[in-house]
Specification:
The complex is a heterotrimer of chains A (506), B (110) and C (200). Chain A contains 17 helices and no strands. Chain A has 506 residues and is an all-alpha fold. Among the domains of chain A are: 160 residues; 177 residues, Cytochrome C Oxidase, Chain A (Up-down Bundle), CATH 1.20.210.10. Chain A is globular, with a radius of gyration of 23 Å. With 110 residues, chain B is an all-alpha fold. The termini of chain B are far apart. The chains are: A mainly alpha (506), B mainly alpha (110), C alpha+beta (200). At the A-C interface, helix 2, helix 3, helix 5, helix 8 and helix 9 of A face helix 1, helix 2, strand 3, strand 4 and helix 4 of C.
């Protein structure tokens, strides 16, 4: 390469760097956020939140592309095929939610332990390593997409296993980063003080990281491979994630509503007992049809019937608490999203889960849009909502604990974002429910699940109009997300009233 | 051994399964509400919700053709959904008991 | 501070212990069941046949006494006109399995009903009537995998599989993998599936 060309490239790169720095500065001046309001741990935490929101955006964007391909199969054909869009859609979701959870933990780690974070520098380094790795993985997904049927493809490109497609090198990186995170949590609590919340969090993180390892191996035997794959997927989203949310909620309720620690911790243990008691063996409902023995039909059926019990417990407790605390609350958007979480979790996980979980009916709903319907409402209801609620708590503190109760400026934004996001997801869920119902009927029951039967169901007018409606409600969701991001960036800007201080009873 | 749902019973299966969870949730909600507000109508509504749950369990049991030990699931739902809210309510009361922390349920009414 | 004694069942320590015991107990049961399930489903067992099953005829029929559809393994029916030893069969199926992962099949198709819902289920793909007749099946499958655009099978949907640059050897591996997978006992899923062997 000749030097003048190189110089040109260098000049361009410098110019580009300066331009982006200028843009960043303009942006910083516009958002007017003062990071001196945040503790060092919280400054790390908001980095995780920022990436989480960016990945949330990517999730919806690629979801829209995939939804478009259901209507126009030629759209981006052999450029960004459905498989690529769908992979990024679900991967971005898993990763943004994990980023959100990690951010939440860093947010309250200092407060809960009563000391500084031990390995803050290491934590910052881990953040940049993880974010760099995620960027590389996504670029490879987009640009390389697939490889030959060799081990090297699984190591470098993608593992081709739904939800945990990340190539092996990234798996190892994720485990290392999780270990650093785990070290920070344990070492900080050890230096400061332990609590019931700290104990549950630590054990849950051990399980979370340990389970991921169960999904890192290649196996020729597909029954064995799917057996372990479900260990990761199910025991994450229906056990360890739920407990992690329980921990985050426990700390938030203590701070938000001033509930006593003893009560909070007792209830956290009750939740753990109910969730792990029903969720661990609830794994059985994924072992109906993958070649595993018949006793899983009974175990899966029985424990699936138990899985709504923790939800019932929450309903009762919520009513009890609403009597005990008159909901004096200085952050309305956060509270609204927590209420959305209660409903979303109940309907998404409880009602939508139980509708198709018994093997007698799952024989016909397995592998259809039923799962997509349930997945959309349950993931959004249980996990997206709680993360968004926490984003609002974080931004309130970042702005210097300003008022976010009634009569806030531009309150229409968060209200409309709440309405559009929830309405959009519910609309998609119902459209997919109709599609799944039709599929279980025509493809599975009438046509006996042949390829001809599959396409007969896909070509049916009711399925096609369901896909159109799903696209429409996807757009509503997208609009809600854009409004949400705008609101998160601007809420509380110029607000001078302070949030009320909630006394915590010890 | 399972007997797959017959084609004609698909709708009733989905519907009754959804109804079990929703009636179970409604019963829990109304039961808890009847504890903080001694209005007998709320209590009656709670038992109506439970009656709906009972009917839904029977419908599901028939549609999903439960037999033998599968009937244990039906029984577990009928018993579990009735007693779980009661037990959890008692837990709420007992875990919150503290002389320094009087609970004023009157506040609940707007 | 005058302590009101809490009943045991409402105390923090009681629920702490309960949470630990319930979690440990459930997990222990899961571990025991995992050992049992893995040994019952290792290749070569009753539920998951040995890889050399690709040398045999495979069918899927309703068994009255078992009350479910079951794979039926019949007499010799060679794949690509070759009899594979157990090790050769394992290698070929392994190549096919690895190819399905490297090509990200699971984000359009379902395998054993798990995956995405943009393209048909592959669990019993080997037995599907879509391959017209047993004489042309193998050839059609390999050609389709290598150039799905030209050999498109869209069933009137306009959805076409993209060209994934699958080599001939990889395509043969995928076919072997699909044949082997169709012989797994999946507890009667899919229900009422009519195979390519069934009489019209």
């Amino acid at each position: 390469m000749n030097t003048s060309g190189l110089n040109g490239v260098m000049q361009n790169a410098t110019a580009l760097g300066e331009k982006s720095r200028a843009c960043l500065n303009t942006f910083k001046a516009w958002v007017q956020l003062d990071s001196s309001n945040l503790s060092p741990g919280q400054q790390l935490s908001v980095k995780y939140f920022i990436v989480a929101v960016i990945l949330f955006f990517a999730q919806i964007l690629f979801g829209m592309l995939a939804a478009t391909q259901f209507i126009f199969p030629g759209f981006l054909y052999e450029i960004l095929d459905f498989s690529v869009n769908r992979m990024i859609h679900i991967n971005a979701m898993i990763v943004w939610m994990l980023y959100g959870f990690i951010g939440c933990v860093y947010w309250f780690l200092e407060d809960e332990s009563g000391t500084d974070i031990v390995g803050l520098k290491l934590g910052n380094l881990a953040f940049w390593v993880l974010t760099g790795a995620v960027t590389v993985v996504v670029l490879v997904y987009l640009l390389v997409q697939i490889g030959p049927g060799k081990d090297s493809s699984l190591w470098l490109i993608n593992e081709g296993r739904e939800y945990i497609e990340a190539p092996r090198w990234a798996d190892i990186g994720i485990v290392v980063v999780m270990l650093i995170f785990f070290y920070n949590v344990v070492a900080t609590f050890s230096k400061g003080k332990w609590s019931g919340i700290a104990g549950v969090l630590t054990l849950d993180l051990v399980a979370l990281a340990g389970l991921y390892v169960a999904g890192m191996f290649y196996m020729t035997n597909i029954t064995h491979e799917q057996y372990w794959w479900w260990w990761v997927i199910h025991l994450w989203v229906e056990a360890t994630w739920e407990v992690l949310v329980g921990v985050i909620m426990a700390w938030s309720l203590m701070k938000l509503l001033g509930v006593r620690r003893k009560i909070i911790q007792t209830w956290l243990y009750i939740e753990v007992a109910l969730m792990f008691g029903s969720g661990i063996l609830g794994l059985g409902h994924h072992y109906f049809w993958i070649g595993t023995p018949e006793y899983w039909l009974t175990i899966g059926g029985f424990f699936s019937a138990l899985e709504p019990i923790p939800l019932v417990a929450m309903v009762v407790h919520a009513v009890y608490d609403s009597g005990a605390h008159a909901f004096k609350n200085g952050n309305h958007p956060a509270l609204a999203w927590i209420i959305a979480q209660a409903f979303g979790n109940f309907f998404g996980a409880g009602v939508w889960g139980f509708m198709h979980t018994l093997p007698q009916i799952n024989m016909f709903t397995h592998g259809t849009q039923w799962s997509a319907s349930h997945g959309h409402l349950a993931f959004f209801g249980a996990y997206a909502t709680i993360n968004i609620a926490f984003f609002y708590l974080a931004i309130q503190h970042w702005r210097g604990d300003v008022w976010m109760g009634g009569n806030s400026q531009n309150a229409w934004r968060w209200k409309w974002a709440l309405g559009l996001l929830n309405g959009g997801v519910v609309g998609m869920t119902i459209a997919l429910l109709i599609a799944g119902y039709e599929q279980s009927f025509i493809e599975r029951a009438v046509e006996g699940s042949t390829w001809g039967g599959y396409f007969a169901a896909q070509n049916h007018p009711s399925f096609q109009s369901a896909m159109n409606w799903r696209w429409f409600f996807g757009l509503i969701t997208f609009a809600g997300l854009i409004l949400l991001i705008w609101d998160l960036l601007t809420i509380g800007k110029g607000e001078t009233r302070k949030a009320p201080i909630i006394p915590v009873e010890e | 051994m399972i007997e797959p749902v017959a084609l004609k019973d698909f709708f009733i299966t989905f519907f009754s399964a959804a109804l079990i969870i929703m009636a179970g949730g409604s019963y829990a909600l109304l039961f808890a509400w009847s504890k903080v507000n001694a209005n007998f109508r709320i209590k009656i509504a709670a038992y109506v919700a439970y009656a709906v749950l009972l009917v839904a369990v029977i419908l599901l049991t028939r549609a999903a053709q439960f037999q033998g030990y599968w009937l244990i699931i039906s029984a577990a739902m009928v018993i579990g959904y009735f007693f779980a809210p009661i037990g959890i309510w008692h837990l709420c009361v007992k875990t919150h008991t503290d002389p320094h922390y009087p609970i004023t349920h009157k506040e609940h009414q707007e | 501070m005058n302590e009101t004694p809490l009943p045991l069942w409402a105390s923090e320590s009681f629920w702490k212990k309960t949470a630990i015991w319930v979690t440990a107990g459930s997990f222990l049961i899961l571990v025991v069941l995992t050992f049992d399930s893995l040994s019952q489903t290792s290749a070569g067992g009753k539920r998951v046949p040995a890889y050399s099953v690709i040398n045999k005829k495979i069918d899927y029929q309703y068994k009255e006494e078992l009350h479910k559809f079951m794979p039926v393994i019949g007499e010799t029916e060679l794949l690509f006109g070759k009899e594979y030893t157990e090790e050769e069969a394992r290698q070929l199926v392994d190549l096919g399995k690895k190819t399905t992962q490297a090509k990200n099949c699971m984000n359009c198709h379902t395998l054993l009903g798990n995956g995405a819902y943009y393209a048909p289920d592959l669990t019993k793909a080997w037995l599907d009537k879509g391959w017209i007749s047993k004489d042309v099946r193998e050839d059609m499958m390999v050609k389709f995998l290598m150039d799905p655009e030209k050999n498109a099978r869209t069933f009137g949907s306009n959805r076409k599989m993209p060209n994934l640059k699958i080599t001939e050897q990889e395509a043969k591996g995928v076919v072997a993998f699909l044949k082997w997978m169709s012989s797994i006992d999946t507890n009667g899923f899919p229900y009422n599936f009519k195979t390519i062997n069934a009489e019209e």
